[in-house]
Structures are given as structure tokens and as C-alpha cells.
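Co-fold these.
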Amino acid sequence: MGAGRVFGKPGVDWDSRMTWIALRMLTGDRMKFLGLVFGIAFSTLLITQQLTIFVNLLGRGATAVYNIQTVDLWVMDPVSRTPDVVFPMPATALDKVRSVEGVAWAVPHLRSVAAVRTPSGDLEGVSIVGVDDATLIGLPERFASGRPQDLASPDAVFIDDVGAEKLFTGVDPVGRRLELNDQRAIVRGVVDVVPSFTAQVVLYTRYSEALNYVPGSRNRLSFVLAKAAPGVDPEVLARRIATETGLRVRTRDQFADDGINFIIENTGIPINFGITVALGFIVGIAIVGLTFSLFIRDNVKQFGALKAIGVHNGRITRMVAAQAALVGLIGYGLGLLMAALFIAIGAASGGAFKGFYIPWQIPTMTLLGVVLILALTGWIALRTVLRTEPASVFR
Amino acid sequence: MSAAAPSVAPAMADPAAIRVQQVSRDFAAGGQVLRVLHGIDLEVRSGELTYLVGESGSGKTTLISIIAGILYPTEGEVEVFGTDLYSLTDRKLVEFRLSTIGFIFQQYNLIPTIDAASNAAVPLIAGGTPRAEATERAQAMLERLGIGDQGAKLPSQLSGGQQQRVAIARALVHEPRLVVCDEPTAALDAKSGRTVMSLLREVAVKPDRSVIIVTHDNRIFDLADRILVMEDGRITHDGTTVPSHEA
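Predicted complex below.
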């Protein structure tokens, strides 16, 4: 009788067959298996959902910039920081910008706040955006109802779609009158935009109308929006305008980043979301770690028996790794699916989550988090098995 | 021999299946070193069913663990079918156990979430035999042990005696040359214990094979070919029966 003749091919096949045993050990203990999957799914959901909300909220610091497609440069007073943190300039700034070589065109842009009396009689703070009378540059491109030329009507304003739902819940806002800083405004259209970070109602009107709606000092020009002439590098032009006018000039992407950075630097949002993401990670480690340890403890005699029979530590490690991989795969998949459904339903409902999406980097980061959780908890659990002496099964 | 088997070739001509020479084993306990085996010399022949008996703490489990290649001796040498176990690398030793030794544990240590046939097939699967073939051979072994109709059941659905038979099937399915058993009847009633031991003797004891059993169970002493009695880490009796005070 040859001892070796009962054995088949070495290598990958061995491990795949032992993997089958490992996975049956795991899935056969249904409660612990579900506990492990739940732990990973919950962590994945929490981390993905919170990171997605965080990233999209930050992104809303840039929506005012990205809602206007055709502009290369935003010119402003040197102390202005973001589309919402503005120090107005004298109207002459527009001519200064237009006079710089390489500027294809430049238009005035006003952003301010006002109070509007709602149909129900409440006061609501709104953002007023005044766009160039002649070209309507500064107006978003997508419309839920109405046409750009409708803004030419007297007292005409366009309202953003989320704001329209807020002010005129369940009612078509077009044709409705608003009392805006004691002046009449008539809604002539609804624009389809991603809301800003503050989620304030935004009313778009012509620059000349906006000056009437927004009382204030002599200087009310918030920005000059400029386009570089063909062949002119916007960044080079930005430096030239800044040098020649003394104004602050930002390219579109730079100004979008300014809006995002302002939120990061001036709100507690990163810390709050960071804490929640960390909690998701910690809860994952706690649930998975505890369940994995219990699972291994319950099976330590079986692992010890396998070691005695002749399964070496490397294969035991791969068996535990296979168990962790299965838990990770199912848990991560379920968690990601739940997070995607949550975000998709929120985005489709058009409310606070309008425009939300999951950037590919977030599932990747979550996957790394899950791998880390499983590696950490698996390693802790595995140590018990690896330390188990085969001889212990005889005690 | 396949690549899965160790490169150490058993010496078939040697009538001694196991040769233990001057084996001692120390354990550290409470800052002190405790010697539990004292220079054991032993030869076990092929074709014999050998019992190791003795009081708790006499060293029999330590000795069988060393013979089975799962516990290093502090001193001495152990040869199993001509292979010096503890001169092997760790990996070779593990492979040697897988190919040459079958284990039967007191608590069976079956995997609770796979069926009886799959449990019995574990050594074959671990050795690289395709699962279907391994399960088929395991099922055949279960039939030889009289529980062929239980192959699809989980261990929790079997009685203690049936579980022990599954454990025996697992120990024998890959046709090991040495079978070591730790108190195989301890958890069984007298009738089941005797049935299991009779089956083990019938199936496992072959001319080129050796079976060593650690037991307290005097109800099955009559099934042994040889009985070694241990006291305080030494073999104090070697015969076909036990001294009257042990029985």
C-alpha cells in the first residue's frame, strides 16, 4: 500500500477543494454567516452613503459655477471668495475687463439675496441672480418649463426647480406672482439646475431687473463673466486681467474649487461626515470582528483537527481568507446596492438629493475599507487558529 | 507516489512500524519545567492493535501525540515506517501526516456543517483528490462501517456511535498506514463502544498497518493485540492483557 497513491494533483486544485470545505463551514452556520454579511453590508452602506452625501454636498459649493456653461473666467473684487460670499464692485469694472486684450466678451453678473413673500404668506430668503440683459449669459441651460426669451417680459423671473417645489408645492409656478423686496415679480419659467449648497430658492432675472429687486449701495456688480478669445489660454488671460485691473480673476474650475474649499474650511461638515464614516468603519470592525472571532472559536477544534490530519497553516490561512472573501463579496455587494438604491431614489425624488450620484472613487474607497476590516478581523481570528497546536485536539 | 505525498519513502522491509527511542517530553508549567515522558523506548509492529492505557496524567496522550507527529519531543527520536519524523521540515511533517496517519479523536471533531460523507472525505480532499471521487470513496468506507445510509446526514443528525463511525471512516478513507485514536469509545455506551471498536479492528488492522489506541475503557481491552500501561511518564507494563489493578 503506497501512502501517496491516494492523493490527486497538488496546487490550486487542493486549495479550491479545501475552499469548498471552508465556505461550507462558514455558510452552514447561518446565523454567524448572516451576522458577518450584515456587518459588512452595514459598514458598506454607511461608508458609501455618507461619503456620497458628503462629496455631493461639497460639490454643491461649485454648482453656481458649473450651472453656467459658457464662461471661462470669473472676475470679482479681490475680497470676494465664492459665488455666495461676494463684495460688489463698481459698474466700471465691466469696462475694465472688456478692455483687456484677449477677452472675447465680458458680461455683468449679479448675485445677491432678497426676501420673498410666499403664497402662504411666509417670508423666504432667496438668491437673486441677475444675468446679462442682452445675451442672457449667466442663465442655466436646461429648462423644466419656459424659454429663455420669456425672461424679456417685464418683472420676469425664472425659478429653480427645487425652489419652485419649495415655494409652490404641488402647483405650477409659471405665471405666479411673487412679492420680492416689496416689488412685483412674475415667474415665467423654471430652470433645471442642481441646487446650491445652501439649498436656497434661486430666482434668475435680467441684470437690470435685479438691480431693482436688490436695494443697496452704489456698487452692486458681483462678477464680470468673461470668455477668452480663441487661442488665448484662460489662465494666462486671468493673470493678465488681474494685473491690469487689480481685480481677482479665477478660471471656472478654480472658482468651483473655491466654493468647495470654502465649505471645507468654514463648516463642520467634513468633521461630522468624517465621524460618521469612521463610525461605519468601527461598527464594521466591531460586528465583523466579534462574529468572526465567535465563528473561529466555535470551529477551532475542527481547524485543529484539520491541522492534525495534515492541512498546513498556509492552507488554513487561505481557507479563512476564502471565508472572509465570501463575506466581503456578498456584504459589500449588498451594502453597495442598498447605498446605490438610497442615492438613486433620493436623486430621483428631486428634493435635497437632486443631482446626487456615486463617484467611482467612493465604492473603491469603501472596498478598501471593507478589505481592511476583513483583513484586520480575519487576521485576529486567524491568529487563534494558527496558534492552535494540532496536539490540542487530543486533550 | 504523487507529488502530494512526502518524499520520505516508508521502509516496507522493516517489521517495526513505529520505533520510539529515548523520547522525553517537558512542559513548562507555572515557571517550572515538568517532565511528563521519561526516556521512552518502544517498538510497535505492523498488523497489531496496540492499546496505551493508564491513569490521567500518565503521559499516554503526550506519547501518542509525539508518535503521530503533532507534538515535538524534547529529546529522542521517533520513526514511523522508517521515517524519522522530527528530522522532517514542518511542511514535510504535515504532508507525512496527511499521507500516512489517520486520526480518530475522542470528540470526533467532525465539521458540523458538511454531511457525513464529505466529513469522511476530508483527508482525500485535503490530499487533492477531486471532491466527487473523494466523496464516493468516503461513501464506500461508510458502507463498510455499516452507516452507508447516513452519508447525506449532518453530524448533528447522527447518534454518537454513528458520528464516531464517520470519524473512523475519515481516519481510514485515505488508507493510512498508522491509525492513532484517542479514547474512541469514551463518549459511547458499552454496546456502541464495542461495536465501534470491533469495526475498527476489522477494517483498520492489516498486515502493513498499525493501530494505536489511547483508552481508559476496560470493556474493550480484550480486543487488543498488545497493551502498554503507562505510569508517571514511563511504560510499566507491556503485554497482551493488563495487570489486575489496571483492569
